[in-house]
Specification:
- Strand 4 and strand 5 form a beta hairpin.
- This protein has 10 helices and 10 strands.
- It is rod-shaped, with a radius of gyration of 49 Å.
- It has 3 domains: about 190 residues, 2-Layer Sandwich (Beta-Lactamase); about 90 residues, Helix Hairpins (Orthogonal Bundle); about 90 residues, 2-Layer Sandwich (Heat Shock Protein 90).
- By secondary structure, the chain is an alpha+beta fold.
- The strands form 3 sheets. A 5-stranded antiparallel beta sheet has the order 2-1-5-4-3. It has a 3-stranded mixed beta sheet with strand order 7-9-10, covered by helices on one side. A two-stranded antiparallel sheet has the order 6-8.
- Helices cover about 60% and strands about 15% of the residues.
Length: about 425
């Protein structure tokens, strides 16, 4: 579940930080492994080489004090004790001729390069690691002079050492994979915790986008960069809210101041229109003036109503509303308009249980929708109004056969005065 959440969002900062944590861990772990691996390997091989050198010194002493026969006897005893398939001895001349040897039946494919014998010129021993055909594990070999014209070659399989290194690699791989998963989980939690403040800023922005402009980002008081961002963001929101409040106040004052002169203008036009001595053209202009004044007053009243609701001081007349009757009355009111436009107005409003609401505002909302539907439906079209209800809601549907609303305008239909 954790990995599925992580992989579903490959472009988030959390994902990138987690990938960085894991990547840094991989690089550091591999560097430590390589360093430790070669240190352990060098130490193990050095132990083998030190053991070989001590053995060579022992055979030098035996050769000088007791001769070749005693060296051969000691080699035979050593071979019997360790096993001829695990260790071999050879005594060679500088030319590579074999002077004596242990049982080499298990080392049939053993070859000695003459070049290395030519390098054995001083008491300092030479080492090499060879691969014997047919043997999985490598063999460590030492060449050393134990007497005049006598070179001792000792070889021993390093099976135990290589098995130890194999186990070392397997253990590291297991630990590495487990630790890698833990590093991903820890990196994810650390990234989420570090960016939790950014998520709170994002959540606040979403709330503001939904209209809750009073929302603010919580300030934790930690003094870190995210906290400073929250403080700065909140200060910006406070400034924006003050600007918006100032603009709304100005609009409300303008709307309030305009209502009286527009009302007087409408009254004068209506009184003048009542006279019968004006020609038809003037009466049409006066009628248009009354209509436009009504439209302006409706907009101003709507602005003031919205301001009151935003301020929480609006007077709502909540009462039982017979929604079926309200829908029928609205359709009866708009029936003459539909007839003039040759538009069929269909109604399906079965009785439903009363609901609590402000009937004036509900009537205004329904009237606006019906007016828009009739204005945008061509002659011969149909506007259908239906009412339905269930246990939790009442649905009023208004459908028309007009041109509809374009897709780019749909998000704006609930904007004020659109």
């Amino acid at each position: 579940m954790f990995l599925s959440k992580l992989l579903k969002r490959p472009y988030t900062i959390v994902f990138r930080l987690t990938a960085w944590y894991a990547g840094v861990y991989v690089v550091i772990s591999l560097a430590i492994f390589i360093l430790l691996y070669f240190m352990v390997r060098s130490y193990i091989y050095q132990r083998v080489d030190n053991y070989f050198q001590a053995e060579v010194e022992e055979y030098r002493v035996i050769y000088r004090s007791m001769g070749m026969d005693e060296v051969k006897a000691d080699i035979t005893g050593e071979e019997t004790a360790i096993g001829e398939d695990k260790k071999f001895f050879r005594i060679l001349s500088p030319a590579g001729r074999e002077l004596a040897a242990s049982d080499l039946s298990a080392w049939k494919n053993l070859k000695t390069e003459k070049t290395i014998l030519n390098r054995v010129k001083t008491p300092t021993a030479l080492f090499e690691t060879i691969v014997v055909p047919g043997d999985r594990y490598r063999t460590r070999v030492i060449y050393a002079i134990i007497g005049p014209g006598v070179i001792l070659q000792i070889g021993q399989t390093i099976k135990a050492e290589e098995e130890f290194m194999d186990n070392f690699r397997h253990i590291f791989a297991s630990v590495f994979i487990t630790a890698l998963l833990l590093s991903v989980i820890v990196g994810w939690f650390m990234s989420r915790r570090a960016l939790s403040g950014v998520e709170e800023v994002t959540a606040t922005v979403r709330k503001i986008s939904d209209g809750a402009i009073e929302s603010r980002v919580p300030v934790k008081g930690s003094g870190d960069e995210i906290d400073n961002l929250a403080v700065t963001f909140n200060a910006m929101l406070d400034r924006i809210q003050r600007l918006i409040s100032g603009m709304k106040e100005i609009n409300d004052n303008i709307a309030h101041d305009l209502r009286s002169p527009i009302t007087r203008m409408r009254g004068l036009a209506e009184v003048t229109l009542a006279g019968s001595h004006f020609p038809a053209e003037c009466r049409a202009v006066l009628a248009g003036t009354v209509e436009e004044c009504d439209r302006l007053l409706a907009m101003i009243n709507t602005m003031l109503d919205i301001s009151e609701m935003d301020a929480g001081v609006a007077q709502r007349e909540i009462a039982d509303v017979d929604i079926s009757r309200m829908v029928r009355d609205a359709c009866e009111l708009f029936q003459p308009v539909a007839a003039d436009k040759k538009v069929t107005l269909e109604l399906e409003a079965p009785p439903v249980a009363p609901l609590k609401g402000d009937i004036k505002k509900l009537q205004r909302a329904l009237s606006n929708i019906l007016d828009n539907a009739l204005r945008n439906t061509p002659p011969g079209g149909t506007v259908s109004v239906s009412l339905s209800a269930d246990s939790s809601q009442v649905i009023i549907s208004v459908r028309d056969t007009g041109v509809g609303i374009s897709e780019h305008e749909l998000p704006r239909i609930f904007n004020r005065f659109y």
